[in-house]
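Q: Could you fold this chain for me?
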Amino acid sequence: MNWARLILREIAFRKLNFGLAVLSVAAAAGCLVAQYTLLRVHDKQTERLLAAREAELRQMMARLQDDYRKIMLKLGFNIMILPAGASLNDLHNDEQPPALMPEEYAHVLASNRVMTINHVLPTLTRKVKWPEQQRKVILMGVKGEVLIQSATQKPLLEAVPAGHVVVGYELHQSLGLKAGQTLVFMGRNFTISKLMEEKGNTDDITLWINLHEAQQLLGMPGQINAILALECNCEADRLAKIRAEIGALLPGTRVIEFASQAITRAEARNRAAAQALASLQHEKEGRARLRAQQEAFAAWLIPVVLSAAAVWIALLTWLNVRDRRGEIGLLRALGVRAGQVLGVFIGRAAASGLVGAVIGAAAGVWVALRWDSGLPAEIYRQALDMGLLAAVVVTSPLLAAAAAWVPALVAARQDPAHILREG
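A: Sure. Below is the predicted structure, expressed as structure tokens.
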């Protein structure tokens, strides 16, 4: 008797039993495919979201750093270059001759582009007596910044034109000066071009004039006593490198850093980076937690469903064997071998596994695709694993056959004479 024909007739004769077996396999295969596909969808969506988030954060970080850069520029210069042996106090000292250096040093510094220095301002500062007002003031001669980047570079401190003066807050308040007025300083007439706001430091008693005019008034042509600079990177170890490089370019000088302004600038930059990284890390952690939850659910559900399907197939096969004892005995008496009987029940179980796997795989894919219809179709195409579908279709018949093995073996080993005698 044809073995395949026996299997088909067995399936046709016990349609409900076969359908229930197919249903159990389909449920197990569907859960496996749906859960695995949804995990892959989550992974692909995470990759897509994080890539977009990283691009967005890079743009945001660039904007933040640019905003902080503009804010930090308002703090002013953060590095001062002085002649060797000079101190900050010497700039405001009128009791001894000042230490000087050539004005050309500013051009040398600018032309050599020292590390991250972006602004260079040569100055001549001296505490002097204002004979016309019988008071001491700080005179600061400024030429305007020596350009480093381009002619369009915006200076931190505007140049003072020849014949003009910028007046500190305390001076113009106490003397009642107004913009546009003419004042006499050390025998020369100057037009007031700007009145400074209150700073709460020595700027309030400072007069800013053109550098060359200051050099003439002080009798120091071509000389300066300080170079102000803005260093924009503020890395932890860059000051020593700047000092070494400036020392090689400008012999007989020393570098002083305005620490509070540099620290403020560094903290601002670091804060911008930290905000961006923290936001991205929070996004990654959130996605990782969600995936862990999905994995935990799948790790619990899939074994339960697979075990239930195996037990269900074994139970259905056992019930079928029990109800068919008479038929089995008759077939054995007619010459059907034990191996053929075993093959019929195993083949029937494998067939239920194959049909159930195809139905379950299709149902699992359908559920996964409909789970979140708002996602782009490209994500689902990338998440669909044809290898998994093939593995489910191949292994399901084997697992179903294994589940039916014991009851099928019991059926094959029954003695036909004993069965017929009982019947």
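A (continued): The chain has a mean pLDDT of 77.
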